[in-house]
Amino acid sequence: MTVTHILGYPRIGEKRELKFALESYWNGETDQSQLKQVADKIKLHNWSHQDNCELSYVTAGDFAWYDHVLGTSLLLGHVPKRHAKGFPDLDTLFRVGRGQSQSGCGCHGEAASDMTKWFNTNYHYIVPEFSSRDTFQVSWPQLFDEINEAQQKGHRVKPVLLGPLSYLYLGKEVEEGFDRLTLLPRLLTAYQAIIAKLEKLGVEWVQIDEPILALELDKVWLDSFKLAYQVIRGEVKVLLTTYFDSVVDTLDTIVDLEVDGLHVDLAAAPEQLEQVAERLPDDWVLSAGVVNGRNVWRANLYSALKQLQPVKDRLGDRLWVASSCSLLHTPVDLELETGLPTVTKNWFAFAKQKVSEVQWLAKALDGDDVAIQYCAQYSQPIIERDLSTWVNKPEVQKRIAGLNLKSGLRSAQYRQRAHHQKEVLKLPLLPTTTIGSFPQTGEVRNVRAAYKRGDIDFANYQSAMQGFIKDTVERQEAVGLDVLVHGEAERNDMVEYFAENLEGFQTTQFGWVQSYGSRCVKPAIVVADIERKKPITVEWSTYAQSLTDKPMKGMLTGPVTILCWTFPREDVPRETIANQLALALQDEVSDLQQAGINIIQIDEPAIREGLPLKANKHQDYLDWAVKAFRISAQTAKPETQIHTHMCYSEFNEIIESVAALDADVITIETSRSNMELLNAFEAFNYPNEIGPGVYDIHSPNIPSVEWIEQLIHKAATRIPVERLWVNPDCGLKTRNWEETEQSLKHLVQAAAQLREKLT
Ligand code: GLN
Ligand code: ZN
Which amino acid positions bind Zn(2+) 1, per UniProt (predicted)? Predict the structure, then answer.
């Protein structure tokens, strides 16, 4: 019989129960036992679902209170010193993830650990901090308790652990000149102890995740695997799990390791199957990750069956069937989507449904006729969908083909454009602006929700929104900003808003996916050709412009960001979707400038995270991503100023592509890193205008005039002052009005003082 399992299940609960439980606990409304009750219920539910679907193993250890990397740190007793007081305690974990509570004293508590993206997903993990004095000691019983609980319920349990090398690799040194890899021997001792405990619990297989094996690793890292897996070898069998890309490049190392099986991601890299199966050591199992854990489409079980059948014939029971990666990255349960038309619903599978896909496929591989029949029928709806919803219309193809020739260049070069823009916009030296959103107060959210529920009609909604816009414009004028925005009160989310207003997307009601801690996102799904049937933002922007003589900046989300933050189709190249989005946005740009909006910002905060994991695929991605952005801006007249915005600071590797976007102005995040980012601009002479953020919007602190001034000064040493803008790091939607107005006053004042000094 084919063995089946998944690499992990979502832990937020079907209706984000964990999110709400965490937040009420953090707010002091509930105690730890109430929080634990919610978590227990979720875990039991997840296990029994896997058991009901007859998976060979249920997975334990995939639950996380905040993040699974942070959970690993606690398991290993590896907590930053500044937070270690009181450990082991759940509150320690929350302090590392969220920082010390600032309640009461008004002073700052100890800082949270950094958070960063989990490979190329939209999930964020807490970065482990390493220094030479670190020790590791198994001190947090959560994993063992969970195994115990699952066993008590009669489940056959396969626990999951983040592997020692990935754990080290994903962390960072917090000590000058220290090399974290030197901690490996100490770390391995702790892993040995973990394995020994698993053995005592009667665990047969443990899943050890080493996703870094899908990266292009330096030799020292790669060479360390051998020792590591020799040391932690015990009686428990090890399934070495990799995901998110192919391991063909590291296969030489892998096949030499002392483990008992390998899991590969066949959704991300199906092409690796043949080589991996070929070179698989004789006594290993191969876990085939065919059910995509990173998207919401039904698996084409029939073609998966055909793909795996020859491998099954060769390997027999050594072939396992699994999800491609943890199901953490998909929404929980499709059945909750009562608003979806049946036809559409039949295209999708969320985590809960994916578990049964794994099982059906395995049964079919075992030759079960009913299952084979089921697999064939199950795939039918997605095949039909392909025919009915994706045509990539000839006129769209033609438009894109026409653009290919010119790779989306605007009609004039930056220098000429800048000249025209100066005449039209008449902006002062060091112009001040913001990134788009202004505080989303409870009132704003209530109006949007009421309209969505149908409690108020469009006329009422519109006049309420206009009220918010008017207020936002007046406040910006009072503060004295040079380029204003309408404030984005109508947007719940910068991507969902466009998805809701474009043809070709399906939005869901409960399709939440964990982003970090208790935060979840609800990505829309690309289901068909993307088209813009009517203007989306023009009405709001022109209304805002009618209220002021200052230039009003139109606000769009760029094609690459919309693509990165939605679930794309699996049967259409990402580039094609990006181009369709770009054309839709291009029409919006044309309409905005037609309506008298002379500055348009096209946000691309996600362009960097869309980078493929392997460096040899970067250029291809960057080429089409840059082109998609340029297509969106292509119809802008020379005198229309195009802005873009990105909110991160690791620019170095993509700086040339950022320049190639050819936006007239780019605003970026810099204040948190104290302008460190500008180092990237030292070696590379960025040709256009830049607004390095001088106000850290992630903190409630109000930056002083002097602070802002010294940041601008610093920036001016790298970028000619004629090309510098003054603005916050990012949008202000999470801040309150009081902080925002105070901070922006300081920002305007700092710019004014510098202008005076400089002229
Ligand atoms: N215009 C958006 C805002 O201000 C940009 C958000 C982002 O960069 N993530 O909210
Ligand atoms: Zn931003």
Answer: 645, 647, 669, 730
Both 465 and 355 in a single domain? no
User: Is residue 682 over pLDDT 60?
Assistant: yes
Q: Cα(164)–Cα(233) distance, rounded to whole angstroms? A: 13
| 612 plus 696 within the same structural domain | yes
* Under 8 Å between Cβ of 724 and 430: yes
Same domain, yes or no, for 374 and 455? no
Q: What confidence tens digit (pLDDT) does each residue in 419-472 have?
A: 999 999 999 999 999 999 999 999 999 999 999 999 999 999 999 999 999 999
- Shortest-distance ligand to the CA of residue 521: 1
pLDDT, tens only, 80-110: 999 888 888 999 999 999 987 544 333 446 7
Asked whether the predicted pLDDT for residue 588 surpasses 70, the reply is yes
Answer for the pair 747, 695: CB distance below 8 angstroms, yes or no.
Answer: yes
319 & 432 share domain: no
Do residues 327 and 8 make contact, with C-beta atoms less than 8 angstroms apart?
A: yes
At residue 224, what are phi and psi to the nearest 5 degrees?
A: -75, -20
Measured CA to CA, the distance from residue 73 to residue 30 in angstroms comes to: 26
Residue nearest to atom 1 of ligand 1 (CA): 436
The reply to whether ligand 1 has any atom less than 6 angstroms from the CB of 489 is no
Residue ranges of E strands in 475-588? 503-506, 513-516, 519-521, 525-531, 553-557
Domain that holds residue 695: 395-758
Question: Which pair of tokens denotes residue 724?
Answer: 């510098």
Catalytic annotation on 329?
no
